[in-house]
User: What shape does this take?
Amino acid sequence: MRVGVVGATGETGSSIVNGLLEAGGFDIIALTRPASLDKPATLVLKEKGIETRSLDLKASHEHLVTALTGIDVLISAIGPMEQLAQLPLATAAKIAGVKRFIPCGFITVIPAGGIQALRDQKEVVYNHVKQLYLPYTILDVGWWYQISFPALPSGKIDYAVGIPGQRIPGDGNVPSALTDLRDIGRYVARIIVDDRTLNKMVLVYNELWTPNQIYDILERLSGEKLERQYDSLETLQARIANADAKLATNPNDFMLALQKVSSEYLISWGVRGDNAPEYAAYLGYVTSKELYPDFAYITFEAYLKEVLAGKGKGVYEGLRQQIAAALKQGHETQ
Amino acid sequence: MRVGVVGATGETGSSIVNGLLEAGGFDIIALTRPASLDKPATLVLKEKGIETRSLDLKASHEHLVTALTGIDVLISAIGPMEQLAQLPLATAAKIAGVKRFIPCGFITVIPAGGIQALRDQKEVVYNHVKQLYLPYTILDVGWWYQISFPALPSGKIDYAVGIPGQRIPGDGNVPSALTDLRDIGRYVARIIVDDRTLNKMVLVYNELWTPNQIYDILERLSGEKLERQYDSLETLQARIANADAKLATNPNDFMLALQKVSSEYLISWGVRGDNAPEYAAYLGYVTSKELYPDFAYITFEAYLKEVLAGKGKGVYEGLRQQIAAALKQGHETQ
Assistant: This one.
């Protein structure tokens, strides 16, 4: 099976490539923008035995079809700002005979229609895929362990904290599905050879945790006491309204877009409780628990112990630097 | 089980009421706009033993909640121009404790996202329902027998022709799922007591027919020869573009809206082939063939014989008069 991956050097894409390599039996093709073909991250892929192929998402239909020819399963793990570039990609995938397209889901469970702007952009892509009658799997993954815990007063886990300045949405008692970023690729390796997931929405997740439970366990494991700061629904809504007002005049301001999207996320998983298996089932998802009850996932406790032992790995390094710089300039991040 | 029906005197609503009465065991409540409570059609419902209850879709949330209190299953069969009135209706249904909402689907299988404006309005309602976490069934019914056949040169079945001036979309060889309007209520009576249909999309249909097959059988049964006039995809698209251009200045022109929506329908079921069980399954529908293989539906041939014997019943009488009047003024209908 020949598996094409768009965005193979990103956080999700890396997990997917590693999961496919670990499972074995896949020919992996990293579909890489021409300017990135010689970048160190791409060369690392080559060293792992992965074919790299030039794919310019803005190029002609013919170019896209050629780049996708021979690919059985196409996985898109592109950045949040590039979602609509998947429209011509899907059209080309249909013509190229791709047997399954996994468009860029890889977020929490969120219903379409105004809860979150990023989710609604994905819906535009999903609708296009469905109009094409292109075989697909929509894959959401819950919220990563890697961005689910706060810093400690001692500063000893700052190196691994995914979202600096984290606060608790709502009352902190809403359970949300969490997944270790590294497990995502392992789930993908199972899903793309599984007929039960064809033309379905799938939620993969490891464990359910509330924010308060996360603070509790981190206090227990670290021996440190955490301050808990709560943001009410009204506070989060005001933050979105504030971002919207400013985005009207600065539509390309990345930090404003981040403020909006992250507050929408917090309302969805932290207040509404969307990111939960029961609600996912209601929306039509099948979950990894039904599909792969034997899956040996990394537990959240094991992950936190790793982080406390200094062996964790931060995510979104570039983004974190951007946020840190913006914080210094007085920006709000959530 | 207490079943509330909005639009109980319409074509679909009447079929639903009759199907529920035939099945028996349901307390039916016709939720009727205040101005229609004393109309003849409403009085006919009362004579059948159906409770009528005032429901003003434009009234306050509190009024809607009160009107829906005690209703287990709420079925909405409202007109095509009123779809968005279901938004506050669904919100009230959630608060009133409705156990299953059947929003106004009752059309052919059409994917969301720009294929048909009416379908996309329904999607807005469906998304709202899902955000409410309100138990639902989305029910589509294919294309009615009653609007699936052309007039005969002799004029003898004009009395029953659902769409005057009908032409054939595309090459006329695309199969489409057809249902007798009278069977819809019979399907509904099964669906609303069936857990397998909860939080699902369901397609009920009787038989698959292509337009050319319909012309063939009508020629055979009638002994008359039919002229076949075909509209290409380009012709249909031009008709939509023409309607769109005029709707920009006359947004409330009913005939223009009809021209647009009917051309979009023809492209969807007649050219794209959306209204077919395989595509429905791809979109996540379960079909009546899987659910109720024993269902004794009316065959299309039996229906046509009824019409030829002068025993058919026309539909949309008011609409047909409106179309006839508009045709006299030189309007295009398709």
